[in-house]
Amino acid sequence: MSTLAYSLSDTGTMLRRQIKHMQRYPSLTIMLVGMPVVLLLLFVYVFGGTLGNGLGGVTGGRDAYLFYVTPGILISSIAAVVQGTAIGVAMDMTQGIIDRFRTMSIARVSVLTGHVLGAMIQVFICVAAVLGVAMAIGYRPEASALDWLALVGVIALIGFGLIWLTVALGMAADSVETASNTPMFLILLPFLGSGFVPTDSMPTVVRYFAEYQPFTPFIEVTRSLLSGTAVEGKELALTVAWSLALALLGYVIAKKKFNKR
Amino acid sequence: MNTRKPLAIEALNLTKSYGENKVLDGIDITVPEGSIFSLLGPNGAGKTTTVNILTTLIPSGSGDAFVGGRHIDKEADEVRKLIGVTGQFAAVDTLLTGRENLQLMGRLHHLGKAETRRRAEELLERFDLMEAAKRAPSTYSGGMKRRLDIAMCLMGDPKIIFLDEPTTGLDPAGRRTVWSIIRRLVKGGTTIFLTTQYLEEADELADKIAVLDGGKIVAEGTPEQLKRLVPGGHVTLRLHRADQLDRTVGALEATGSDPDQLTVQVPSDGSVHSLRKILDALDREEIEVDEFTVHTPDLDDVFLSLTGQTTAD
C-alpha cells in the first residue's frame, strides 16, 4: 500500500473508533441535539408570537417566526455540536492510548481526522433531528431537490470549518474544563448575527459586527436554500471562504499541538 | 542503511533538559539483540525520559541513539515500525472493550481483517483475558489492564519492546505473571528494555543492569558484577550491654556502630571461616550478644551505596 492508502486506512480506523465511542456513550450526542431543540421550542413558543410580528411580513406571528428562525437554529446546532468536539478531543488527549499512537508508525493526523469525521456525523444527526422537530411543529421548507443537495454541501462545509476550529481549541486547552469553556462563544454568534432577528433591527455597533462575522453568511445561505430563493453570490463566497479559512487555521494549530508534546 | 546490526539499542551521550533542569546528563546505553536490559533507578532519575526519547515520543536534547539500527530522530518512523511500548500508565482506550482495543492495534498495523482477528484471539487466550474480552478496561484489575497493555504492544509483533515500570502498582501475583510474560518474549528472540525501581525485578530478569541516578548512569553490568561492586557483606550484632560497645568495636574491627540500638556492623563475606573468627573474638572478650545477623550483599546494597537512597520498598 502507498502512504496515501495507509493514511486513508488509518483515518478509517480512527473514525471507527470515534463511532464506537459515540455508540457506547450516546448520551453526549443526545445532549448535543437537545440544546438546539430546546432553543427552537423556546424561541418559537415563548418569543415567537411577538418576534414574528416584528419581522414586518404580511402574516406575522408565530408561523412567520418559525419560518425565519429555523435556519438560524440549524446553524446554532452546528455550533452546539462542536462544543462536544472540543471536549472530546481534550478528553482523548488525556488518555494513555494517545501516547501509544504516537509511538506507532501511523499517519499521525488520522487521530485528529477521526475526530473531525466523527463530529461531522454528529453534525448531520443533529441538523436532521432539529429539522425534523421544526417540521413536526409546522415548519414547511420550500427548497427544491437541488437546494437540498446544496444544503447538505453547505452544512458539511460549515461543519468542516467549525469542527477543525474546535479540534484546535480542544488541543490547545490544558484541561477538559478549559476545552468545555473556550468554544462557548460560538453559541452566541448566531444571536449576534441574522439567526434570530434581522440585523437591520440592531444598533449600529452590533449591526456592524453582525454583518462581518461568519455566522451571518452561514445563516443567510441556509435560509435562502431552505426558502427556495436565490442564494446571493456574495453570501455564498463568504461562507466558502470563512469555512475554509477556519478549517485551515484549526488544522494548522491542531497539528502543531499534536506533534509537540 | 546503518549497519549496527548486533545491537538492538544504542545510545551515545544522550542528554535532555527542560529549561535549567538537566534530566539526562549524557548517558550511554548498549543493548544486544535478544537480551533484557534493565534501567534501574529511583523516582525522578530520568528513566521515563529515557524511554520517551528512545521510543520517539519526545526529541532528544543532544547525542545520538539508534533503535534497531535506525536513528531515533532522523528515522523516527522506521523506529516506530520496530518497537512496542508499554508505558507506566495503561495506554488502552478505556471506552473500547479489551478485544476491540487489540483489534484497533491490528488495524493500525495494517494486518488485514483475518490476521487481526486471529492474533487478537491468540493474545486474549495467551494473556488469560478471554473472559474479560467483551468488557471495557475500566472494569479490569490492575494486573489485567497491564496484561492487555502488553498484549496491545505485541499485536504488531515488535522486535524491540520498551516496558516502563511494567509491574509498578501490581500485587505479587500480577508481578510474577508479567515476569513470566517477559521471559517468554525473550525466548522468542525479542529484545526487552525494562525500567524498574525494584531491584528484585532487575536481578530476576535482566542480563544487564544500568543504575540511573540524577540523569547519569552510575553503574552498569550484570547483576553479579554489580553485587561485586559492594565489597563483601557484613554481620550485624545486637549487644546486650551498652558498656561493651566500644570494646566490641575495637576487638572486631567493626565498620559501624549504633549506640542507641546497641548494634555493631562487622565486615564479613559470610563464610564459615570469617564467622568463626567473629564468634571466637566474642567468646574471648566475653561479649554478650542478643542477636546475630549475617547479611550477604544484594542489589539493595549496590543501589544504596551508589545512589545514596533507600529503595522504594
UniProtKB/TrEMBL annotation, chain A:
Topology of this chain in the membrane: Multi-pass membrane protein
Main subcellular location of this protein, as a coarse class: membrane
Subcellular location(s) of the protein: Cell membrane; Membrane
Keyword set includes Transport: yes
Keyword Phosphoprotein carried by entry: no
Keywords: Antibiotic resistance, Cell membrane, Membrane, Transmembrane, Transmembrane helix, Transport
Classification via InterPro entries: ABC2_TM (IPR013525), ABC2_TM_bact-type (IPR047817), ABC_2_transport (IPR000412), Nod_factor_ABC_transporter (IPR051784)
Listed transmembrane segments: 25-45, 65-90, 111-137, 149-173, 185-210, 236-254
Classification via PROSITE patterns: ABC_TM2 (PS51012)
Domain ABC transmembrane type-2: 27-261
GO cellular component labels: ATP-binding cassette (ABC) transporter complex
Single GO MF descriptor: ABC-type transporter activity
Biological process annotations from GO: response to antibiotic
Family listed: Belongs to the ABC-2 integral membrane protein family.
PANTHER family noted in UniProt: NODULATION PROTEIN J
Protein's name according to its UniProt entry: Transport permease protein
Organism encoding this protein: Glycomyces paridis
Automatic annotation (TrEMBL), chain B:
UniProt keyword list: Antibiotic resistance, ATP-binding, Cell membrane, Membrane, Nucleotide-binding, Translocase, Transport
One Gene Ontology term from the biological process aspect of the record: daunorubicin transport
PROSITE patterns, A to Z: ABC_TRANSPORTER_1 (PS00211), ABC_TRANSPORTER_2 (PS50893)
Keyword Hydrolase: no
Database matches in SMART domains: AAA (SM00382)
InterPro entries, per database record: AAA+_ATPase (IPR003593), ABC_transporter-like_ATP-bd (IPR003439), ABC_transporter-like_CS (IPR017871), ABC_transporter_ATP-binding (IPR050763), DrrA (IPR005894), DrrA1/2-like_C (IPR025302), P-loop_NTPase (IPR027417)
Keyword Membrane carried by entry: yes
Protein name listed in UniProt: ATP-binding cassette domain-containing protein
Organism: Glycomyces paridis
Lineage: Bacteria, Bacillati, Actinomycetota, Actinomycetes, Glycomycetales
